[in-house]
Amino acid sequence: MNLEPDLSDPKTAAPAVSNKTTPHTLHHTVWPKRLPHRISPPATSLWHNLAVSALRFPDKPALVFFDRVFSYAAVMQQAERLAATLHRLGVRKGDRVVLNMQNCPQWVIAHFAILRANAVVVPVNPMNRAEELKHYITDPDAKVAITSADLAPELAKANAQLGPDERLAHLIVTHYSDAFDLNASQHGGAIPEAWRDWLGTKHELPRLEGGAVMNWSDALLGDIGDLPAHTATPQDLAVLPYTSGTTGLPKGCMHTHASLMHNAVGSCLWGNSTFENVVLSVVPMFHITGMVSVMHAAIYGGATPGHHAALGPGAGRTADFALARDALDEYSDHGD
Questions:
Q1: In a domain, 20, yes or no
Q2: Which residues, other chains included, contact 145 with Cβ-Cβ below 8 Å and sequence gap of 6+?
Q3: What is the DSSP string of 244-260?
Q4: Residue 195 gets which letter from DSSP?
Q5: Is 239 part of a structural domain of the chain?
Q6: What is the largest CA-CA distance in the chain?
Q7: Which residue in 198, 232, 233, 164 sits closest to 309, CA to CA?
Q8: DSSP-derived pairing of the beta strands 68-71 and 96-100
Q9: Using CA atoms, how far apart are residues 291 and 111, in angstroms rounded to an integer?
């Protein structure tokens, strides 16, 4: 049997490739030769990027934060446990969950936990205060928020100013030191002096009007066996970041799994990403650039994002660049 296509038959012949330049292809004349003009991203949800990288590289560093290294397997396990807790707290498919903290491993774990729970991430600028935060609770109709201990009082204050039907039901709170050994980092000099009080201070959990507050460590005790299947599709909403609100109240920008997947894959191609890349995550991840072009691109490509606590109070450029240099030196193997 001849299985070769009859190229003389117009029904089976490959379409002719035109070299004619059109207004839509003018940029091809300066397009990098190493890059394709079109890409075919995976037809899966963003959660699968972490799941696949954890399957392929279980022991490989996925996140680095000061002296702490999280393997891909550990990140996935913590994300699933947190997702199980979110489900127990009532989070269901399509529900919006507020995520409000600086760059840290907990941000990544919480982000993927929300996706694993088939819910929608609402990333919030950690510089916002109570009056602004009210809008990020009411507009997406969020009932659960995940935040850091230094920012939790502002969320609690915002929540208290809302009506009973508008308020959060649950607040999960983490300290940055939940993700590294504060004593070891202090003695080893890994933390700049100006950051130690900010990163090391233990804050009391705030009272949440009409709701309950949970420690991060308790939230990571969720039973994965109780977690429903992941059913999010590429067409489902994944992230709802908000505009800055220059001309009015901030507006939610609807991003599906497919749209962010496309940009994550494109970022990998443009950045010459490989499995051995080490990426210093200094761009705030609540912003779409840090979230997609750094975090999602790195996780998709099986790289190692080293997290930098962005915008730390009192941190000078010297300390910032020293941390960046040390992180890249320690986790990159590029020779002498």
A1: no
A2: 97, 98, 99, 100, 137, 155, 168, 170, 171, 172
A3: --TTSS--B--EEHHHH
A4: G
A5: yes
A6: 76
A7: 198
A8: unpaired
A9: 10
Nearest CA-CA partner of 261 in 40, 110, 112 = 40
How many residues does the structure list for the chain?
A: 336
Domain count of the fold of the chain: 1
Whether residue 250 contacts residue 90, with contact meaning beta carbons closer than 8 Å, is answered with no
Strands 237-239 and 96-100: unpaired
- In tens, the pLDDT along 303-323 reads 887 765 543 333 333 344 455
Measured distance CA(138)–CA(163) in Å, rounded: 10
Residue linked to tokens 């912003």:
287
Selection from 219, 234, 199, 255 nearest residue 78 by Cα: 219
Quote the tokens at residue 164: 């009973």
Task: Write out pLDDT tens, residues 12-40.
Answer: 554 544 567 787 888 888 888 888 888 89
Kind and range of the H or E run holding 327: helix 317-331
Tokens read off for 226: 């109780």
Q: Are 287 and 124 in contact (CB under 8 A)?
A: no
Q: Which two tokens stand for residue 35?
A: 């890059």
**Please, are residues 280 and 328 in contact by the beta-carbon 8 Å criterion?**
yes
CATH of the domain at 73: 3.40.50.980
Q: Which amino acid is at 201?
A: T
Q: Which two tokens stand for residue 326?
A: 């040390």
